[in-house]
Design a protein that fits this description.
- This protein is of the alpha/beta class.
- 31% of the residues lie in helices and 16% in strands.
- It has 18 helices and 20 strands.
- It has helices at residues 35-42, 47-53, 58-64, 87-98, 114-123, 167-173, 205-211, 228-237, 257-263, 279-283, 304-313, 330-339, 358-368, 385-391, 415-425, 447-457, 470-481, 505-508; strands at 12-17, 23-28, 72-74, 104-108, 129-133, 155-159, 182-186, 217-221, 243-245, 269-271, 294-296, 319-321, 347-349, 374-378, 400-404, 413-414, 431-434, 441-442, 463-466, 488-490.
- The strands form three sheets. It has a 16-stranded parallel sheet with strand order 3-4-5-6-7-8-9-10-11-12-13-14-15-17-19-20, covered by helices on one side. It has a two-stranded antiparallel ribbon with strand order 1-2. A two-stranded parallel ribbon has the order 16-18.
- Helix 11 packs parallel to helix 12 (330-339) and helix 16 (447-457) packs across helix 17.
- The chain is globular.
Protein backbone atom coordinates (compact mmCIF):
# COMPACT_ATOMS: atom_id res chain seq x y z
CA UNK A 1 0.00 0.00 0.00
CA UNK A 2 1.28 3.54 -0.77
CA UNK A 3 3.26 4.88 2.16
CA UNK A 4 1.80 8.39 1.72
CA UNK A 5 -1.75 7.30 2.45
CA UNK A 6 -3.16 10.02 4.70
CA UNK A 7 -4.89 7.59 7.03
CA UNK A 8 -2.19 5.43 8.61
CA UNK A 9 -3.75 2.09 9.55
CA UNK A 10 -1.26 -0.51 10.73
CA UNK A 11 -1.58 -4.16 11.58
CA UNK A 12 -2.75 -4.59 15.18
CA UNK A 13 -2.95 -7.51 17.57
CA UNK A 14 -6.49 -7.88 18.87
CA UNK A 15 -6.77 -9.97 22.00
CA UNK A 16 -9.63 -12.41 22.22
CA UNK A 17 -10.49 -15.50 24.20
CA UNK A 18 -11.29 -18.86 22.63
CA UNK A 19 -13.76 -21.39 24.05
CA UNK A 20 -11.15 -22.70 26.51
CA UNK A 21 -10.53 -19.21 27.91
CA UNK A 22 -7.08 -18.79 26.40
CA UNK A 23 -5.86 -15.51 24.94
CA UNK A 24 -4.62 -15.40 21.39
CA UNK A 25 -3.48 -12.69 18.98
CA UNK A 26 -5.63 -12.03 15.89
CA UNK A 27 -4.17 -9.97 13.05
CA UNK A 28 -6.48 -7.29 11.69
CA UNK A 29 -5.75 -5.18 8.60
CA UNK A 30 -7.50 -2.29 6.90
CA UNK A 31 -9.23 -4.74 4.54
CA UNK A 32 -11.28 -5.97 7.50
CA UNK A 33 -12.84 -2.56 8.12
CA UNK A 34 -16.53 -2.19 7.17
CA UNK A 35 -17.32 -0.22 4.03
CA UNK A 36 -18.94 2.58 6.08
CA UNK A 37 -15.75 3.09 8.05
CA UNK A 38 -13.62 3.12 4.89
CA UNK A 39 -16.02 5.60 3.31
CA UNK A 40 -15.63 7.87 6.31
CA UNK A 41 -11.82 7.60 6.06
CA UNK A 42 -11.95 8.44 2.34
CA UNK A 43 -14.00 11.56 3.11
CA UNK A 44 -10.89 13.12 4.68
CA UNK A 45 -8.86 12.71 1.48
CA UNK A 46 -8.60 15.11 -1.43
CA UNK A 47 -10.03 14.02 -4.75
CA UNK A 48 -6.51 13.51 -6.11
CA UNK A 49 -5.84 11.08 -3.27
CA UNK A 50 -9.20 9.36 -3.74
CA UNK A 51 -8.36 8.77 -7.39
CA UNK A 52 -5.04 7.20 -6.36
CA UNK A 53 -6.75 5.03 -3.76
CA UNK A 54 -9.20 3.74 -6.36
CA UNK A 55 -6.30 1.88 -8.03
CA UNK A 56 -5.43 -0.17 -4.92
CA UNK A 57 -8.12 -2.84 -5.28
CA UNK A 58 -11.64 -3.47 -6.55
CA UNK A 59 -13.25 -2.78 -3.17
CA UNK A 60 -11.53 0.57 -2.83
CA UNK A 61 -12.49 1.47 -6.38
CA UNK A 62 -16.14 0.90 -5.51
CA UNK A 63 -15.83 3.12 -2.43
CA UNK A 64 -13.97 5.82 -4.38
CA UNK A 65 -16.88 5.93 -6.85
CA UNK A 66 -19.41 6.55 -4.05
CA UNK A 67 -21.17 9.76 -5.06
CA UNK A 68 -21.22 11.05 -1.48
CA UNK A 69 -17.48 11.72 -1.84
CA UNK A 70 -18.10 13.94 -4.85
CA UNK A 71 -20.58 16.55 -3.60
CA UNK A 72 -17.99 19.37 -3.95
CA UNK A 73 -15.53 19.22 -6.86
CA UNK A 74 -12.85 21.55 -8.20
CA UNK A 75 -11.53 20.90 -11.69
CA UNK A 76 -8.96 23.71 -11.57
CA UNK A 77 -5.57 22.02 -11.01
CA UNK A 78 -3.85 25.34 -10.27
CA UNK A 79 -6.24 25.78 -7.29
CA UNK A 80 -5.60 22.27 -5.90
CA UNK A 81 -8.29 20.73 -8.06
CA UNK A 82 -8.39 17.69 -10.33
CA UNK A 83 -6.76 17.84 -13.75
CA UNK A 84 -9.22 16.53 -16.32
CA UNK A 85 -7.41 15.74 -19.56
CA UNK A 86 -10.38 15.61 -21.95
CA UNK A 87 -14.00 16.60 -22.30
CA UNK A 88 -15.02 12.98 -22.79
CA UNK A 89 -13.48 12.04 -19.46
CA UNK A 90 -15.34 14.90 -17.74
CA UNK A 91 -18.64 13.84 -19.28
CA UNK A 92 -17.98 10.33 -17.96
CA UNK A 93 -17.28 11.70 -14.49
CA UNK A 94 -20.52 13.68 -14.49
CA UNK A 95 -22.59 10.62 -15.38
CA UNK A 96 -20.75 8.01 -13.26
CA UNK A 97 -19.50 9.81 -10.16
CA UNK A 98 -21.21 13.17 -9.71
CA UNK A 99 -24.91 12.63 -10.31
CA UNK A 100 -27.50 13.84 -7.84
CA UNK A 101 -24.93 14.23 -5.03
CA UNK A 102 -23.06 17.10 -6.69
CA UNK A 103 -23.68 20.43 -4.96
CA UNK A 104 -20.62 22.51 -5.92
CA UNK A 105 -18.34 22.53 -8.97
CA UNK A 106 -15.48 24.69 -10.26
CA UNK A 107 -14.78 24.69 -14.00
CA UNK A 108 -11.77 26.21 -15.84
CA UNK A 109 -12.21 27.90 -19.21
CA UNK A 110 -11.22 24.83 -21.27
CA UNK A 111 -14.03 22.76 -19.69
CA UNK A 112 -16.80 25.35 -20.00
CA UNK A 113 -18.66 24.15 -23.10
CA UNK A 114 -22.31 23.84 -23.98
CA UNK A 115 -22.03 20.01 -23.83
CA UNK A 116 -20.62 20.04 -20.28
CA UNK A 117 -23.23 22.53 -19.11
CA UNK A 118 -26.00 20.41 -20.67
CA UNK A 119 -24.75 17.32 -18.83
CA UNK A 120 -24.58 19.17 -15.53
CA UNK A 121 -28.11 20.47 -16.02
CA UNK A 122 -29.48 17.02 -16.88
CA UNK A 123 -27.56 14.74 -14.50
CA UNK A 124 -26.90 16.95 -11.46
CA UNK A 125 -30.35 18.20 -10.38
CA UNK A 126 -29.11 19.29 -6.94
CA UNK A 127 -26.24 21.48 -8.14
CA UNK A 128 -26.57 24.78 -6.24
CA UNK A 129 -23.04 26.29 -6.32
CA UNK A 130 -20.95 26.89 -9.44
CA UNK A 131 -17.68 28.70 -10.24
CA UNK A 132 -16.82 29.48 -13.87
CA UNK A 133 -13.22 30.60 -14.37
CA UNK A 134 -12.78 32.68 -17.52
CA UNK A 135 -9.81 34.64 -16.11
CA UNK A 136 -7.21 33.18 -18.49
CA UNK A 137 -9.46 33.16 -21.56
CA UNK A 138 -8.28 34.65 -24.83
CA UNK A 139 -11.42 33.45 -26.63
CA UNK A 140 -14.63 31.71 -25.65
CA UNK A 141 -16.14 28.47 -26.87
CA UNK A 142 -19.16 28.70 -29.15
CA UNK A 143 -22.29 28.82 -26.98
CA UNK A 144 -24.80 29.29 -29.81
CA UNK A 145 -26.18 25.79 -29.15
CA UNK A 146 -26.46 26.23 -25.38
CA UNK A 147 -30.06 25.32 -24.51
CA UNK A 148 -29.76 24.14 -20.89
CA UNK A 149 -28.06 25.33 -17.71
CA UNK A 150 -28.38 24.31 -14.02
CA UNK A 151 -31.59 25.85 -12.75
CA UNK A 152 -31.24 25.47 -8.98
CA UNK A 153 -28.15 27.64 -8.59
CA UNK A 154 -28.06 29.76 -5.43
CA UNK A 155 -24.39 30.71 -5.77
CA UNK A 156 -22.56 31.72 -8.95
CA UNK A 157 -18.97 32.90 -9.17
CA UNK A 158 -17.64 34.18 -12.51
CA UNK A 159 -13.92 34.95 -12.78
CA UNK A 160 -13.72 37.53 -15.55
CA UNK A 161 -11.20 37.88 -18.34
CA UNK A 162 -9.71 41.29 -19.05
CA UNK A 163 -10.28 41.09 -22.79
CA UNK A 164 -13.11 38.64 -23.50
CA UNK A 165 -16.64 40.00 -23.74
CA UNK A 166 -18.99 37.71 -21.81
CA UNK A 167 -22.34 38.92 -23.09
CA UNK A 168 -22.75 36.18 -25.71
CA UNK A 169 -22.51 33.55 -22.97
CA UNK A 170 -24.49 35.50 -20.39
CA UNK A 171 -27.46 36.02 -22.72
CA UNK A 172 -27.80 32.24 -22.92
CA UNK A 173 -28.00 31.75 -19.15
CA UNK A 174 -30.09 34.75 -18.03
CA UNK A 175 -33.31 32.70 -18.07
CA UNK A 176 -31.79 30.04 -15.77
CA UNK A 177 -30.28 32.14 -12.96
CA UNK A 178 -33.18 34.15 -11.55
CA UNK A 179 -32.99 32.08 -8.35
CA UNK A 180 -29.45 33.26 -7.56
CA UNK A 181 -28.93 34.57 -4.04
CA UNK A 182 -25.14 35.00 -4.07
CA UNK A 183 -23.18 36.47 -6.99
CA UNK A 184 -19.41 36.88 -7.28
CA UNK A 185 -17.85 38.73 -10.20
CA UNK A 186 -14.08 38.52 -9.77
CA UNK A 187 -11.73 40.82 -11.66
CA UNK A 188 -7.98 40.90 -12.19
CA UNK A 189 -6.95 43.88 -10.07
CA UNK A 190 -3.50 42.40 -9.42
CA UNK A 191 -2.50 42.93 -13.06
CA UNK A 192 -0.85 46.33 -13.46
CA UNK A 193 -2.65 48.49 -16.00
CA UNK A 194 -0.86 50.98 -18.20
CA UNK A 195 -2.58 54.37 -18.12
CA UNK A 196 -3.00 54.53 -21.88
CA UNK A 197 -4.68 51.13 -22.14
CA UNK A 198 -8.44 51.05 -22.65
CA UNK A 199 -10.56 49.36 -20.00
CA UNK A 200 -13.27 47.08 -21.36
CA UNK A 201 -16.61 46.40 -19.69
CA UNK A 202 -16.45 42.67 -20.35
CA UNK A 203 -19.79 41.89 -18.72
CA UNK A 204 -23.01 43.91 -18.94
CA UNK A 205 -23.93 44.51 -15.30
CA UNK A 206 -27.05 46.48 -16.21
CA UNK A 207 -28.53 43.45 -18.00
CA UNK A 208 -27.28 41.01 -15.41
CA UNK A 209 -29.08 42.78 -12.56
CA UNK A 210 -32.42 42.40 -14.37
CA UNK A 211 -31.96 38.61 -14.47
CA UNK A 212 -31.05 38.30 -10.77
CA UNK A 213 -33.75 40.00 -8.66
CA UNK A 214 -33.28 37.73 -5.61
CA UNK A 215 -29.65 38.51 -4.81
CA UNK A 216 -28.78 38.79 -1.12
CA UNK A 217 -24.99 38.96 -1.47
CA UNK A 218 -23.08 40.70 -4.28
CA UNK A 219 -19.29 40.59 -4.41
CA UNK A 220 -17.62 42.67 -7.14
CA UNK A 221 -13.94 42.10 -6.40
CA UNK A 222 -11.08 43.88 -8.13
CA UNK A 223 -12.95 44.75 -11.34
CA UNK A 224 -11.37 47.68 -13.13
CA UNK A 225 -14.55 48.89 -14.87
CA UNK A 226 -16.97 48.75 -11.93
CA UNK A 227 -18.11 52.23 -10.90
CA UNK A 228 -20.96 53.87 -9.02
CA UNK A 229 -23.44 53.37 -11.87
CA UNK A 230 -23.15 49.60 -11.47
CA UNK A 231 -23.89 49.84 -7.76
CA UNK A 232 -26.90 51.98 -8.63
CA UNK A 233 -28.05 49.36 -11.16
CA UNK A 234 -27.99 46.49 -8.66
CA UNK A 235 -29.73 48.54 -5.96
CA UNK A 236 -32.56 49.39 -8.37
CA UNK A 237 -33.56 45.74 -8.80
CA UNK A 238 -32.24 43.73 -5.83
CA UNK A 239 -34.54 44.61 -2.94
CA UNK A 240 -33.31 41.61 -0.89
CA UNK A 241 -29.72 42.91 -0.85
CA UNK A 242 -28.01 42.32 2.52
CA UNK A 243 -24.30 42.45 1.66
CA UNK A 244 -22.43 44.42 -0.99
CA UNK A 245 -18.65 44.12 -1.44
CA UNK A 246 -16.74 46.27 -3.94
CA UNK A 247 -13.23 45.78 -2.55
CA UNK A 248 -10.44 46.89 -4.91
CA UNK A 249 -12.86 48.48 -7.38
CA UNK A 250 -10.92 51.71 -7.81
CA UNK A 251 -13.60 53.58 -9.79
CA UNK A 252 -16.12 53.49 -6.94
CA UNK A 253 -16.41 56.96 -5.37
CA UNK A 254 -19.66 56.67 -3.41
CA UNK A 255 -21.69 59.04 -5.60
CA UNK A 256 -24.69 56.66 -5.61
CA UNK A 257 -24.34 55.60 -1.97
CA UNK A 258 -27.23 57.77 -0.79
CA UNK A 259 -29.58 56.14 -3.31
CA UNK A 260 -28.26 52.70 -2.41
CA UNK A 261 -29.35 53.04 1.22
CA UNK A 262 -32.69 54.55 0.28
CA UNK A 263 -33.50 51.54 -1.91
CA UNK A 264 -31.78 48.70 -0.05
CA UNK A 265 -33.39 48.85 3.36
CA UNK A 266 -31.98 45.44 4.34
CA UNK A 267 -28.36 46.29 3.53
CA UNK A 268 -26.32 45.52 6.65
CA UNK A 269 -22.84 44.83 5.25
CA UNK A 270 -20.88 47.23 3.02
CA UNK A 271 -17.25 46.44 2.12
CA UNK A 272 -15.36 49.17 0.23
CA UNK A 273 -11.70 48.42 0.91
CA UNK A 274 -9.24 50.23 -1.42
CA UNK A 275 -11.88 52.22 -3.30
CA UNK A 276 -11.67 55.94 -4.10
CA UNK A 277 -14.46 57.17 -1.85
CA UNK A 278 -15.10 60.90 -1.73
CA UNK A 279 -15.95 62.32 1.69
CA UNK A 280 -18.62 64.68 0.36
CA UNK A 281 -20.68 61.80 -1.06
CA UNK A 282 -20.58 59.73 2.12
CA UNK A 283 -21.60 62.69 4.27
CA UNK A 284 -24.81 62.92 2.20
CA UNK A 285 -25.86 59.39 3.16
CA UNK A 286 -28.64 59.11 5.74
CA UNK A 287 -26.62 56.80 7.97
CA UNK A 288 -28.98 57.27 10.91
CA UNK A 289 -31.79 55.61 8.90
CA UNK A 290 -29.68 52.73 7.59
CA UNK A 291 -29.53 49.11 8.78
CA UNK A 292 -25.76 48.97 8.29
CA UNK A 293 -23.91 46.85 10.85
CA UNK A 294 -20.67 45.94 9.08
CA UNK A 295 -18.51 48.54 7.33
CA UNK A 296 -15.08 48.36 5.67
CA UNK A 297 -13.58 51.67 4.52
CA UNK A 298 -9.91 50.68 4.80
CA UNK A 299 -7.43 52.11 2.34
CA UNK A 300 -9.68 54.99 1.29
CA UNK A 301 -8.98 58.73 1.57
CA UNK A 302 -11.83 59.85 3.79
CA UNK A 303 -11.33 63.00 5.84
CA UNK A 304 -11.45 63.26 9.62
CA UNK A 305 -14.66 65.29 9.34
CA UNK A 306 -16.32 62.59 7.22
CA UNK A 307 -15.25 59.78 9.55
CA UNK A 308 -16.70 61.55 12.57
CA UNK A 309 -19.91 62.34 10.70
CA UNK A 310 -20.38 58.69 9.71
CA UNK A 311 -19.47 57.02 12.97
CA UNK A 312 -21.64 59.19 15.21
CA UNK A 313 -24.70 58.64 12.98
CA UNK A 314 -24.59 54.88 12.33
CA UNK A 315 -27.02 53.49 14.92
CA UNK A 316 -25.93 49.85 15.23
CA UNK A 317 -22.35 49.32 14.08
CA UNK A 318 -20.94 45.88 14.95
CA UNK A 319 -17.97 45.56 12.57
CA UNK A 320 -15.63 48.39 11.59
CA UNK A 321 -12.55 48.10 9.39
CA UNK A 322 -10.88 51.48 9.02
CA UNK A 323 -7.19 50.75 8.50
CA UNK A 324 -4.74 52.75 6.38
CA UNK A 325 -6.64 55.99 6.97
CA UNK A 326 -4.66 59.16 7.57
CA UNK A 327 -7.84 60.86 8.72
CA UNK A 328 -8.52 58.37 11.50
CA UNK A 329 -7.01 59.92 14.61
CA UNK A 330 -7.68 60.30 18.34
CA UNK A 331 -10.37 62.90 17.66
CA UNK A 332 -12.34 60.41 15.54
CA UNK A 333 -12.00 57.69 18.17
CA UNK A 334 -13.02 60.06 20.97
CA UNK A 335 -16.06 61.32 19.02
CA UNK A 336 -17.08 57.75 18.27
CA UNK A 337 -16.94 56.93 21.99
CA UNK A 338 -18.74 60.05 23.21
CA UNK A 339 -21.36 60.61 20.50
CA UNK A 340 -21.74 57.31 18.63
CA UNK A 341 -23.21 53.96 19.57
CA UNK A 342 -20.28 51.69 20.39
CA UNK A 343 -22.19 49.31 22.65
CA UNK A 344 -22.68 46.68 19.90
CA UNK A 345 -19.21 46.85 18.34
CA UNK A 346 -17.56 43.39 18.26
CA UNK A 347 -14.83 43.81 15.60
CA UNK A 348 -12.37 46.66 15.06
CA UNK A 349 -9.54 46.95 12.52
CA UNK A 350 -7.32 50.06 12.65
CA UNK A 351 -4.23 48.66 10.92
CA UNK A 352 -1.60 51.18 9.73
CA UNK A 353 -3.49 54.15 11.19
CA UNK A 354 -0.35 56.01 12.30
CA UNK A 355 -2.21 59.08 13.54
CA UNK A 356 -3.73 57.15 16.43
CA UNK A 357 -1.84 57.34 19.72
CA UNK A 358 -1.40 54.49 22.16
CA UNK A 359 -3.09 56.67 24.79
CA UNK A 360 -6.18 57.12 22.61
CA UNK A 361 -6.36 53.42 21.89
CA UNK A 362 -5.92 52.58 25.58
CA UNK A 363 -8.88 54.79 26.53
CA UNK A 364 -11.07 53.14 23.93
CA UNK A 365 -10.04 49.57 24.67
CA UNK A 366 -10.22 49.94 28.44
CA UNK A 367 -13.86 50.97 28.04
CA UNK A 368 -15.02 48.68 25.23
CA UNK A 369 -12.41 45.93 25.00
CA UNK A 370 -14.53 43.48 26.98
CA UNK A 371 -17.11 43.27 24.16
CA UNK A 372 -14.66 42.89 21.27
CA UNK A 373 -14.32 39.56 19.49
CA UNK A 374 -11.91 40.80 16.80
CA UNK A 375 -9.14 43.40 17.16
CA UNK A 376 -6.46 44.26 14.60
CA UNK A 377 -3.85 46.92 15.38
CA UNK A 378 -1.03 45.95 13.04
CA UNK A 379 1.46 48.08 11.14
CA UNK A 380 1.92 50.79 13.80
CA UNK A 381 5.48 50.87 15.22
CA UNK A 382 4.42 52.90 18.28
CA UNK A 383 1.88 50.23 19.33
CA UNK A 384 4.11 47.75 21.13
CA UNK A 385 3.64 44.77 23.41
CA UNK A 386 3.44 47.20 26.33
CA UNK A 387 -0.01 48.43 25.23
CA UNK A 388 -1.16 44.90 24.46
CA UNK A 389 -0.10 43.60 27.87
CA UNK A 390 -2.00 46.47 29.48
CA UNK A 391 -5.29 45.84 27.66
CA UNK A 392 -5.24 42.03 27.53
CA UNK A 393 -7.09 41.66 30.87
CA UNK A 394 -10.19 43.30 29.34
CA UNK A 395 -10.05 41.32 26.07
CA UNK A 396 -11.58 38.24 27.67
CA UNK A 397 -14.06 37.67 24.81
CA UNK A 398 -11.55 38.06 21.99
CA UNK A 399 -11.58 35.48 19.19
CA UNK A 400 -9.30 37.13 16.62
CA UNK A 401 -6.21 39.31 17.26
CA UNK A 402 -3.63 40.81 14.92
CA UNK A 403 -0.68 42.75 16.34
CA UNK A 404 2.80 43.94 15.48
CA UNK A 405 4.59 45.51 12.53
CA UNK A 406 7.17 44.23 10.07
CA UNK A 407 9.22 47.41 10.51
CA UNK A 408 12.35 47.07 12.62
CA UNK A 409 11.79 48.56 16.07
CA UNK A 410 14.26 50.37 18.28
CA UNK A 411 13.04 48.33 21.27
CA UNK A 412 12.27 44.63 21.62
CA UNK A 413 9.11 42.63 22.14
CA UNK A 414 9.12 40.31 25.16
CA UNK A 415 7.15 37.57 23.50
CA UNK A 416 7.15 35.13 26.45
CA UNK A 417 5.38 37.64 28.66
CA UNK A 418 2.96 38.49 25.85
CA UNK A 419 2.06 34.84 25.21
CA UNK A 420 1.55 34.28 28.91
CA UNK A 421 -0.81 37.26 29.06
CA UNK A 422 -2.80 35.99 26.08
CA UNK A 423 -3.05 32.51 27.62
CA UNK A 424 -4.26 33.94 30.93
CA UNK A 425 -6.84 36.39 29.56
CA UNK A 426 -8.06 35.11 26.17
CA UNK A 427 -9.48 31.55 26.53
CA UNK A 428 -11.79 31.97 23.51
CA UNK A 429 -8.97 32.90 21.10
CA UNK A 430 -9.17 31.14 17.70
CA UNK A 431 -6.86 33.16 15.45
CA UNK A 432 -3.73 35.14 16.32
CA UNK A 433 -1.13 36.86 14.16
CA UNK A 434 2.12 38.41 15.40
CA UNK A 435 3.61 40.49 12.59
CA UNK A 436 6.75 41.62 14.42
CA UNK A 437 10.12 41.13 12.76
CA UNK A 438 11.73 38.01 14.28
CA UNK A 439 14.81 40.06 15.21
CA UNK A 440 12.63 42.14 17.52
CA UNK A 441 11.26 39.12 19.40
CA UNK A 442 13.06 38.39 22.67
CA UNK A 443 12.49 35.07 24.42
CA UNK A 444 14.34 33.08 27.05
CA UNK A 445 15.41 29.49 27.57
CA UNK A 446 12.12 29.02 29.41
CA UNK A 447 10.15 29.95 26.31
CA UNK A 448 8.90 26.37 25.86
CA UNK A 449 7.01 26.66 29.14
CA UNK A 450 5.26 29.86 28.03
CA UNK A 451 4.28 28.20 24.74
CA UNK A 452 3.04 25.10 26.60
CA UNK A 453 0.80 27.25 28.82
CA UNK A 454 -0.49 29.16 25.79
CA UNK A 455 -1.23 25.94 23.87
CA UNK A 456 -2.97 24.27 26.80
CA UNK A 457 -5.12 27.25 27.79
CA UNK A 458 -6.10 28.41 24.29
CA UNK A 459 -7.67 25.12 23.24
CA UNK A 460 -9.85 26.74 20.56
CA UNK A 461 -6.86 28.10 18.67
CA UNK A 462 -7.08 27.26 14.95
CA UNK A 463 -4.42 29.52 13.49
CA UNK A 464 -1.26 31.15 14.85
CA UNK A 465 0.67 33.19 12.27
CA UNK A 466 4.27 34.28 12.91
CA UNK A 467 7.08 35.80 10.85
CA UNK A 468 9.50 33.16 9.66
CA UNK A 469 12.42 32.84 12.05
CA UNK A 470 13.76 31.07 15.10
CA UNK A 471 10.73 31.75 17.31
CA UNK A 472 8.41 30.43 14.59
CA UNK A 473 10.40 27.18 14.45
CA UNK A 474 10.21 26.76 18.24
CA UNK A 475 6.44 27.34 18.36
CA UNK A 476 5.77 25.13 15.35
CA UNK A 477 7.75 22.24 16.83
CA UNK A 478 5.92 22.62 20.14
CA UNK A 479 2.47 22.39 18.54
CA UNK A 480 3.49 19.52 16.27
CA UNK A 481 4.65 17.48 19.26
CA UNK A 482 1.13 17.91 20.61
CA UNK A 483 -0.36 16.67 17.29
CA UNK A 484 -1.71 20.11 16.38
CA UNK A 485 0.02 20.15 13.02
CA UNK A 486 -1.90 22.82 11.12
CA UNK A 487 -2.10 25.61 13.72
CA UNK A 488 1.24 27.42 13.33
CA UNK A 489 1.85 29.16 9.99
CA UNK A 490 4.03 31.93 8.56
CA UNK A 491 3.06 35.39 7.33
CA UNK A 492 4.32 34.44 3.85
CA UNK A 493 1.43 32.02 3.26
CA UNK A 494 -1.28 33.10 5.71
CA UNK A 495 -2.83 36.21 7.25
CA UNK A 496 -5.50 36.73 9.88
CA UNK A 497 -8.49 39.01 9.35
CA UNK A 498 -11.59 40.11 11.22
CA UNK A 499 -13.56 39.09 8.12
CA UNK A 500 -14.14 35.71 9.78
CA UNK A 501 -16.64 37.55 12.02
CA UNK A 502 -18.82 38.86 9.18
CA UNK A 503 -22.33 37.42 9.20
CA UNK A 504 -22.00 36.60 5.49
CA UNK A 505 -18.41 35.39 5.67
CA UNK A 506 -19.17 31.93 4.21
CA UNK A 507 -21.16 33.51 1.38
CA UNK A 508 -18.28 35.86 0.53
CA UNK A 509 -15.66 33.12 0.13
CA UNK A 510 -14.49 32.50 -3.43
CA UNK A 511 -11.59 30.52 -4.90
Amino acid sequence: MDSWLSVDVTTANVLSRDNRGSVRGVKTTIEKLPDKVLLNIFSYLSHKEICSMSRVCRKWRTIAYNTSLWYSVSLRPEISGLHVTSLDFLLSLISVRFGSSLRYIELPIELITHTVLHELANRCPNLTHMLLDFSTAMQLHDFSELQAFPTKLKYLCVCLSEVIFMEGFMRKIYNFINGLEILHLIGTYEKVEEEEEEIYEVINVHKLKSATPNLRVINLYGINFIDDSHIDAFSSNCIQLECLAVNYCSKVTGSTMKTLFQRSKRLRCLLMNQTNLISEYLMQVEWEKSSIQELDISGTDLSTECLIDMLVRIPNLKFLSAGQLNGFNDTVLSSFMEQGNVRNLIALNLDYSDNLSDEGLYKFLSRYGHQLQGLSLAGMPHITDQLWNTVLPVLNNIIIMVMGTQERLSGNVLVDQLMDGIATNCPRLERLELKWDPDNLRFSDKSQKAIDIFRVKCLKLKCLVLSDGRYYEIVKANFERADRLTVVRTTTCCSVSNYYLLQNYKDLIFN
